[in-house]
Amino acid sequence: MWRRRPAPDAARHVAPDDPTAGGGGAAGAAGGAIVRTVALTKVYGAGDNEVRALDGVDLTVAPGEFVAVMGPSGCGKSTLLNMVGGLDTPTSGRVFVAGADLTTLPDDALTELRRRRIGFVFQFFNLIPVLDAVENAALPLTLDGASGAAETATEWLTRVGLADRLRNRPDELSGGQQQRVAVARALAADPALVLADEPTGNLDSKSATEIAELLRQVAAEWHRSVLMVTHDPRIASYAERLVLMRDGRIVDDLVLDGSREAPLRAMERSGLL
């Protein structure tokens, strides 16, 4: 079973210049969204060559919420993730993360926010080959000059199930183990938000399931918000919410019940299959 999220006109009003207030549905009810986008638009090119990668996207993610984003290639889901992560700038609209308006932050403040408030998990792990698991997981803290970086990294590696692989380099780890190191690295700086871009796309089915379960744990037990882009409906089913996109717009936003079939049914209803 699934439940559609409330329509925007049923949500409580949020002033556009209130960066900490949530929008409608679960995020609004939480009293303060970790992520909020307002009329987010990204246009590439001009005239006949104009492409609207994002077209007025309004999205909220509540504290500790696990949200999956799906849609066909070119629908704007990766562009959305880049905007929320401060890796690209919108043509218009606003992006709030942990109470900060990314669209107005100076470059140094944006860099600091990315390093301290956002964790990133990528499809191809992006680990440093010559560093072991502890050194890779500690890298954000090391670059930030934080004390106790190795100890914090060791704690997170232990939490993600790699206590016996602390001194292994990436080429001594399986794909699933490398992605666990990447998750530990994303959490080491104690971020409010974890952004996962196709985190299971380079893994076998068993490892993919384990990483999906781990990301669910990141949200449910460790209370970080998780925003994940995926092409796999089975992996999306581990999330609490599913956002479907097409042509740069959100076409559906619904609460999932954990059944593996729910994302497929939602995609069928939205004409995405």
How much helical structure, as a percent, in the residues?
Answer: 25-40%
Tally of separate helices: 9
Oligomer: single chain
Do you know the CATH topology? Rossmann fold
Q: What order do the strands of the largest sheet run in, or round the barrel if closed? A: 1-11-10-4-9-8-7
Rg estimate, integer Å = 18 Å
Low-confidence stretches: 1-31
Cα distance spanning the termini: 19 Å
Characterize the largest beta sheet: strand count, sense, and whether it forms a barrel.
7 strands, mixed
CATH uppermost class:
Alpha Beta
Strand content is: 15-25%
SSE arrangement, N to C: EHEEEHEEHEHHHEHEHEEH
**Averaged pLDDT:** 89
Topology:
Blueprint: E1 3-4, H1 25-29, E2 35-44, E3 51-61, E4 66-70, H2 77-84, E5 92-97, E6 100-101, H3 107-117, E7 118-121, H4 133-143, H5 149-159, H6 175-188, E8 193-197, H7 205-220, E9 225-229, H8 233-236, E10 241-246, E11 249-255, H9 262-269
Parallel strand pairs: 4-9, 4-10, 7-8, 8-9
Antiparallel strand pairs: 1-11, 2-3, 2-5, 5-6, 10-11
Helix pairs in contact: 4-5, 4-6, 5-6, 6-7
